[in-house]
Amino acid sequence: MALQAAYSLLPSTTASIYKEGRFSASLKETTLTSFSFSNNLRSDKISIKEQRRQNPRFSTGIRAQTVTATPPSNEASPEQKKTQRKGTAVITGASSGLGLATAKALADTGKWHVIMACRNFLKAEKAAKSVGMSKEDYTVMHLDLASLESVKQFVDNYRRTERPLDVLVCNAAVYQPTAKEPSFTAEGFELSVGTNHLGHFLLSRLLLDDLKKSDYPSKRMIIVGSITGNTNTLAGNVPPKANLGDLRGLASGLNGQNSSMIDGGEYDGAKAYKDSKVCNMLTMQELHRRYHEETGVTFASLYPGCIATTGLFREHVPLFRLLFPPFQKYITKGYVSEEEAGKRLAQVVSDPSLGKSGVYWSWNNNSSSFENQLSKEASDAEKAKKLWEVSEKLVGLA
Ligand SMILES: NC(=O)c1ccc[n+]([C@@H]2O[C@H](COP(=O)([O-])OP(=O)(O)OC[C@H]3O[C@@H](n4cnc5c(N)ncnc54)[C@H](OP(=O)(O)O)[C@@H]3O)[C@@H](O)[C@H]2O)c1
């Protein structure tokens, strides 16, 4: 049963390879691709170091305003200045797993200052230190997505820092596959959808204004998706399947009085997580339709691969946690390390070739990115609009 659950979390490419009985994905190719990517990162770092050597004011996270106020004598053009300043990326849930690995990958380039938006301040600080991030490359700020008040407080606090906002990554998530009863956010919404979708929905809506103001060459908002919400894949077809139905449970408040599930059905923790991921992917597309043309912001989602070792599975049964990583590593070969997944998300944050808006990115076995197809429900524009309108009411924006 644990293995069946494990299989449900396979990436699409792996799932189809598994189905065809071919397990010989080229590890060598993957390793080589990763190697050349990290080499690129390293050479970026060298060039930034070189810039710091030539212009000491470039160090310790100086903001664009500072650089502009006292230009060096061999003054760069306005376009060059834009590309020279460090970008600022807010990453929710950067205290572990994918979020931490992405923060580290971005910091290592020397081109980004990462705001680690986390509910546990001390854990985030320790995590940043444990992966060797240097102080000047990150700031930890408190954010509890299970409280809409905390989301608003975070936005206020962020604005007080007067930092520009260039990229927002909505990454944090909770997964409660074994919960028998629902638990709830501060405002009384079922916890998985309340945190993963509603908390991020409010955050992204409020910070959109700040993103709009960014003068960074490419401003982006990324909402992490998942294969488990996509029923056009083998993994997405393992019960309980994601299904938002007509959103009657969400419309009635998702507070356990009528229902704790978006479709109005019986509570199921694994389904609640998958439903929340469908919401994430629908929200990204609705943001794209409403705001991409007007603001120039790139909206994207992704499935980073199966990162079997992260804290996401902390509430799963011990047998699952024991078997899942080796099952992914040696049987399906679908395993993606946290480091590799972090590099993938970092690509979506900053790689010029991944700047297209409205895309759901995935990676093949050679670690090359491609535009993936979402399931019928996860790409349903009518449902996305309805989800937007109901969510607006729940978070107090309408
Ligand atoms: N692991 C996979 O195989 C996989 C596959 C597809 C997609 N994903 C997606 O990847 C993203 C990251 O997951 P992960 O695997 O890296 O799991 P993870 O290690 O458990 O990371 C989740 C992060 O979310 C944070 N978080 C949880 N509740 C929060 C709240 N109320 N407010 C603020 N932060 C909160 C956690 O904070 P604490 O450290 O304080 O707990 C943690 O930093 C999720 O969106 C997940 O759906 C993961």
TrEMBL record:
Native species: Brassica napus (Rape)
Q: Which Gene3D superfamilies match?
A: NAD(P)-binding Rossmann-like Domain (3.40.50.720)
Compositional bias (Polar residues) at which positions?
56-77
Matching entries from PANTHER family are given as:
PROTOCHLOROPHYLLIDE REDUCTASE C, CHLOROPLASTIC (PTHR44419)
Q: In which pathway does it act?
A: Porphyrin-containing compound metabolism; chlorophyll biosynthesis
The record ties this protein, via InterPro entries, to:
NAD(P)-bd_dom_sf, Prochl_reduct, SDR_fam
Q: Tell me, what is one Gene Ontology molecular-function annotation carried by this entry?
A: protochlorophyllide reductase activity
Pfam families, per this entry? adh_short
One GO cellular component from the entry?
chloroplast
Family per UniProt? Answer: Belongs to the short-chain dehydrogenases/reductases (SDR) family. POR subfamily.
Protein name per Swiss-Prot or TrEMBL: NADPH-protochlorophyllide oxidoreductase
Compartments where located: Plastid, Chloroplast
Known EC number: 1.3.1.33
Top EC class of this enzyme: oxidoreductase
- What is the predominant subcellular site recorded for this chain? plastid
Protein's GO biological process: chlorophyll biosynthetic process; photosynthesis
Q: What does this protein do?
A: Phototransformation of protochlorophyllide (Pchlide) to chlorophyllide (Chlide).
